[in-house]
Design goal:
The structure holds two protein chains of two kinds. By secondary structure, chain A is an alpha+beta fold. Chain A contains eleven helices and seven strands. Helices cover 48% and strands 15% of the residues of chain A. In chain A, a hairpin with a 5-residue loop joins strand 6 and strand 7. In chain A, helix 7 packs antiparallel against helix 8. Chain B is mostly helical. Helices cover 58% and strands 8% of the residues of chain B. Chain B has twelve helices and eight strands. In chain B, the strands form three sheets. Chain B has a three-stranded mixed beta sheet, covered by helices on one side. A three-stranded antiparallel beta sheet of chain B has the order 2-6-5, with no helix packed on it. Chain B has a two-stranded antiparallel ribbon with strand order 7-8. Chain B is globular and about 65 Å long. Chain B starts with 6 loop residues before the first helix and ends with a helix. Classes of the chains: A alpha+beta, B mainly alpha. At the A-B interface, helix 7, helix 8, helix 9, helix 10 and helix 11 of A face helix 7, strand 8, helix 8, helix 9 and helix 11 of B.
Chain lengths: 375, 343
Amino acid sequence: MDLNLTPDEQSFRDEFRAWLQENVFEAKTVDELKRWQRTLFEGGWAGISWPKQYGGRGATLMQQAVFQEELALADAPQLIGVIGLSLVGPTIIAMGTDEQKARHLSKILSGEEIWCQGFSEPNAGSDLASLGTRALKDGDGFIVSGQKTWTSFAHIADWCLLLVRTDFEAPKHKGITCLLADMHAPGVTVRPLRMMSGDAGFNEVFFENVRIPSSQVLGKVNEGWTTAIAALMNERANLGTGVQVLFRRNLNALIARARSMNRSADPIVRQKLAQAYLELEILRMNTNRALTSLSKSGVPGPEGSTLKLYWSEMNQRTQQIAQEVLGQHAQLSDFDNGMWQYSYLRARGNTIEAGTSEIQRNIIAERVLGLPKSY
Amino acid sequence: MDFDLSKPQKLLKQSARDFLSRECKPERVRAAMATDTADDRALFTAAADQGWTSLIIPETYGGLGLGVVDLAVVAEEMGRACMPGPLFATIFASAAIVHAGTEEQKRKWLEPIAAGEMRATVALSNEFVLDAGVADLVLRFTDDGIEEVEGATFERTPAIDETRKLYRVDDRQSCLSEGRQDCLSSTIDIAAVALCAEMVGGMQWILDTTVAYAKTRQQFGRAIGSFQAVQHLCADMLLMTESARSATYNAAWEMTPLAVSIAKAYCSDAYREAANRGIQVHGGIGFTWEHDLHLYFRRAKASETMFGDATFHRERIASLVIDRQSSAAERSAEMLARSSSSK
């Protein structure tokens, strides 16, 4: 056991921190955010987990965690190509044809093309495998019709990693195919949805007789569930190392506010803040343990589910504590620029997005504890 | 970074588990618990032969000179077996002598403790003294170190955890001392981490036992572990157990007051909650005297308050974190509030 960074990890941190100090800039619009990813790409910092032969750095999991932490510490803009970088790219590398790799990988890294993930549907949420978007064989391709929803980045995406049903007779997991869909193709319509926090960013996507060539099947026809699981594993292997830095900044701000409002001497406030602090520290420790275990086994397991369950529920408790400590001020849009009401509202989504707490508990029960399937 | 036990630590853990599953079966725990002292002398001696009384005693005094992580590894297995008697108190006393004893005291006491010939405990007040009735040496903190409590009588006070007995020291003595703050708190921090590790082991036993039961117990024609209501209780127990484990081993590695308080605050709540859920999943059988669950349910409550409950440790966290927040942190928080919105 050694909880210090190794010399390699430390020098990786120093190098990236120094690079960020030189290069980070504020970015809000789509063009600015694309320019930020381009800057990372040109500095050799895009897709660091990808193998070197595909333009990545072959970074270890611990280096990826350090990378996420440094981005958050530097207050760097969000990665607009995150779906491509963390989910689509690694899946194309693992399962794509040479042609697909040549066509897509470098444009994902540079941010020239933005990807979204067409998985959830109005009637296929937690039960994703029951999805009903239809792809009918038509010569050397498919004609796709149906609807996706909760699709982040779809309004600005060039491509979509799309799950469709290609066999209607087979059991639900066996009739799914994964396609690389051009979002600019005729028949694709995007309708933005607004979150209850006021944020835009996710969408409904409608496909009406959209033609997709067979060369754009990722993996094999009717084996798309395997591709989807591989993609989700890549996503969860990321383990949310970035969010904990955001939480840390948020909690530091709360403690500072509690002090400046003379609330920090109140014994009840002190109990609540200490509880929020210790829960966040334990998130950091749990994450480091999971990274160690994943580094040794090499196989993404259910660690992602336990961490997701922990941080999402923790953040809701902490935002409630923020509301209690700051009182009605926390509800005001002009108090601290509205950050407390925003954080409170945004946290409500945490236990739903990327797999509800109930689904995470099912996964833990079945895959970690070996309990019988419940459905 | 490597947040995992080393190979020797894994071997130590396995040998501790093997030893306890052979020597400290539930029947033996219950037999000890039914006595006035909960002292199974043969078990104590066998554990001492494994080196468990000498773990953190420096080699110059006949010990193994191991670290707190190694101590936690053994303590976790002790907690898993709900090991009865004065071994835990003796380890606590050895930490007190190592950290607060004079050279003379160390020479006098550490060697017989390491050899398993002397059982010891520490009185932090006149009440709630662990295993004083069977200890050959009862220590208390003074303003500048530790000393033996001599000529005192110890009266047993029956309490919720019958596997480790509590005693009251007679009024002619005063065992309540603030002591030298540094050595007192570093001693208690080591003992608290060892206790947290025991609590993690107890939680693991409850989780394993409960999951095994949920796989076999049938109702409505199927295993109750196939019902999500039961699955989710078990999943929460796993999350609490693993979080308690992370916090405990982090504290054993760091050994700072903050890390220790984080671990003890969390474990105090989590062990109780895991024990609650374990009994709930078992239903009626879990509420019987015959089932071993209540040994752990009782131990959870006793451990919750020993060396400071969650409220005590949260206050210590507050004094270390809130009261010492740097002005740099305040400035960056102000900037965040101006700029902002984050997830």
